[in-house]
Amino acid sequence: MRGTLPVTLGATIVLLVAAACGGGPAPIPQPDPDSLAAAEQMRRDSTVVVQAERDSVQRVQAEARERVQREQQAQRDSVVRIQQETAAVAEALSARIHFDFDRSVIKPEWEAVLDMKIAILQANPMLTISIVGHCDERGSDEYNIALGNRRALGAKQYMVNRGIEAQRISTSSMGESQPAMMGSGEEAWSQNRRDEFVIASGGDGLVQPGS
Amino acid sequence: MTRMFAKSPVIAAVLFCAIIWRGEDALAQREGPADQGVRVGITYAPGTLPGLLFLGSGRGVFLDSVRAILRRDLDYSDRFEMITIPGNEFLEIAGLVEGGSAPLSEDEAGSVANYALYAALRVDFALDVSKSPDSGAAVTLFDVRGAAVRRRLTVENGDVESLEFRANVHRLSDAVVLAATGTPGIATSRLLFVRRGRLYRVDSDGAGVTGIAASGNVYSPTWHPEGKDFAYASFPGDSRVRIGSLDGESGDAHLIIAGVDGTQDFAPAFSPNGVTIVFARAGAEGTDIFSYNLADSCCLQRLTVGRFSDNLSPTFSPDGRQIAFVSTRPGSPQIYVMGSDGTGAELFAPFDFGVTGNSYAPEWSPDGLNIAFHREIGGSPQVFVMDVSSRTVKQLSSAGRNEDPTWGPDGRHLAYVSSRTGSSQIWVIDLETGRIRQVTRMGRVRLPSWSSRLD
What ipTM was predicted for this assembly? Predict the structure, then answer.
């Protein structure tokens, strides 16, 4: 509807001009109404095109932004996932095991903890670890170095017996020098008689066993 | 006597009181045969220590410091009964040094001593500390029973706060003990110990606590036989044995034995001639004792092959032929002995399987007669001494935790860490009299090592 009104106006002007030509002075040259209309049409059309182009660019830009954001989000999610998985694996790897007083044998209740570490080592072939043996304050300072060493060796032997290469596990002893819990009494002592497991190398991007 | 009384009525009054005060004891003792007749030489009945009385003239920071250190050293030697005059640190005696001129000759000095009075006070030795006319102090030891001057000594003037001054007076003390008893004292000796990973030294009387620069966290310090160098392990750190020295730059303690990856070295001990050092090495095969030749910097040798047992905390016999150590061969840590070449290892301190507590930290006495160690009894460690020839074991402590014994150079004093007052401190027990005294007063003290006598 909006398009027909200018066309009607243009036709009316043409008719009026033609009537004035008869017997009167030479007609004043008039622009071709069709070209006027066309120019007007073009002007109008180009505005529409520009607008459309503008809209299209904005849409494309928005889409690109969205895509980038989506990709970044996906990347972030994946990094977080990897970090979370690495952290979960590292946490499982660092779980301590504990010992009876003056003993270095692996008690059955700690075997599952070591089995998990074995699975992690198998799922992450670049991973190497260090086992550090600790003691409670009883026994002489010097004896506790030897005992802590035995405790680290005990856990290593358990894992080597189940297929982990010996060179992937180093051992050392802290004796009684680094208690996990201060105090004298079985509560503190039982916490202090332990092996700690530390990542030595290959600890980035750890994967869960079976993943 | 008349001479002294004539010179000072005050002294006469003090002496009178002193005689009254000592008189009761003297009466009580009079029935014993030991006090009858004349005692000759230095012999005394077991349990009866010779009485020692301080004499002197003049005061001042220097003289009083000499007297205080000397008195404490002689008291801590546990070889004298210190006889005191109420209200006085020493018995005033005039005339030993005349007007700042040369000291009296031995005969003259003897003539001013009131032997009869000292004898009445049950004094066997009187020790005069007075100003020397040159500089420093002159010390005269009187043998009361023999009514003669036993020895005259001097000590140089010095800064009374300095370690050097203290060392000089300790030397004097040891000379006095030697002159009086025929056996040198132990006052010049000192102890190393560890507190919060730092290495310290302390004179055997508990004074002069000084930090020693050392590498890393110090563990198991031990003296070289000559008492100037020492070895220790740096633990956990790089866990290697280092040797430091109190002479010169102790900070650059050197690494003596190259480490092996995956091992930790600790518990060093020197052989009596200082040529060999033995230590424990923990590694993939457990813990075993190794020896190393310090003189030639060579010849690392493994002395024990534990396989399924750990072997550690070695200590040489004073003849260098044997090494006592801790072994877990019997299933729990116990005291073993072997030849210094590692042969002939056998159980040393007897134990009953399942009954006797874990035993640790042996140290062979300087006279070779005893081994001190600590053993778990009823949940806390206590100090034990084993007679080497009979292999009989005696428990020395019972209050609190008592551990890591180390012998004094006289073989009758034993220092160890005790928690009897609540905090871990070094204490010393005299095995002859059973007397104990506290050495350190700083808490969290551990792993003491007592030096030999120092010149």
Answer: 0.83
